[in-house]
Design a protein that fits this description.
By secondary structure, this protein is of the alpha+beta class. Helix content is about 35%, strand content about 20%.
Length: about 240
């Protein structure tokens, strides 16, 4: 199930400003969703437009920013940006928090991350009903507003988002622990790495995921040596 986007919609303009047009293709989104549903993780190469990603990296390298070292040491040690961000970084964070981006993530993962996105069971009702719903969203039918209002009222089903701009250096880490309220249910981790084009696996850095009631640990390389790569991982407990 994939929802169509319209370039004429003011809500969706931010996607066309930031996202590589290839990822706005209906067929490509369906392909990505199938792959993500099979593996619960995916790496999207060159996800952002080259000029936008270049501007973000340049701002991180050249503009002055305030960083706060987070703790306590038994849980984490890394730097988090605080205070006002440079304009391009602030715009990037706004994009990543936008409703349009959450709707795009729903298309890419099949998860209900937006009130207009269907539940997984809804996608089993048949191709015809899915197509009709997608067309109604693209055309802006009045029925969508009513459905959206009803969905918004279901507070227990509205996803939440936390976002940080982090600076990783030698000796920085996070630790898995049991007290994080945000880790008590399934979650989608989205990682966008900047300034790591020349990073090699032997340099170190990794992310581990441990599912509830499972002994097996899944480890992923931490820093992606890919330009504008976006990593998506569906987990229930993570570090």
């Amino acid at each position: 199930f994939v929802i169509f986007f319209s370039s004429d919609s003011p809500q969706h303009e931010i996607l066309y400003e930031w996202v590589n047009p290839a990822y706005l293709s209906f067929e490509y989104q369906s392909q990505i969703q199938d792959e993500f549903e099979d593996s619960s993780e995916i790496l999207l190469k060159d996800f952002l437009k080259e000029e936008r990603f270049g501007a973000v990296c340049a701002a991180l390298e050249t503009q002055s920013m305030d960083w706060e070292l987070l703790g306590p040491p038994n849980k984490r040690c890394y730097k988090k940006a605080k205070g006002e961000l440079p304009d391009v970084l602030s715009s990037c964070m706004d994009f990543l928090r936008s409703e349009a981006f959450f709707l795009l993530l729903s298309n890419l993962t099949g998860l209900k991350l937006h009130f207009l996105a269907p539940d997984n069971e809804d996608s089993d009702e048949g191709e015809g009903s899915s197509g009709d719903h997608a067309r109604s969203l693209a055309q802006g039918d009045g029925g969508v507003e009513q459905a959206g209002a009803a969905a918004r009222s279901q507070e227990d089903r509205v996803p939440t988002c936390t976002a940080e701009l982090r600076c990783w250096e030698h000796g920085h880490y996070t630790m898995i622990h049991d007290n994080g309220a945000e880790r008590q249910q399934f979650a989608l981790d989205l990682l966008l790495f900047c300034g790591c084009e020349d990073w090699e696996a032997e340099y170190g850095g990794f992310t581990s995921y441990i599912a509830k009631e499972e002994d097996e640990e899944v480890t992923m390389g931490g820093f992606l040596g890919l330009k504008s790569g976006l990593s998506l991982d569906k987990t229930d407990v993570g570090s």
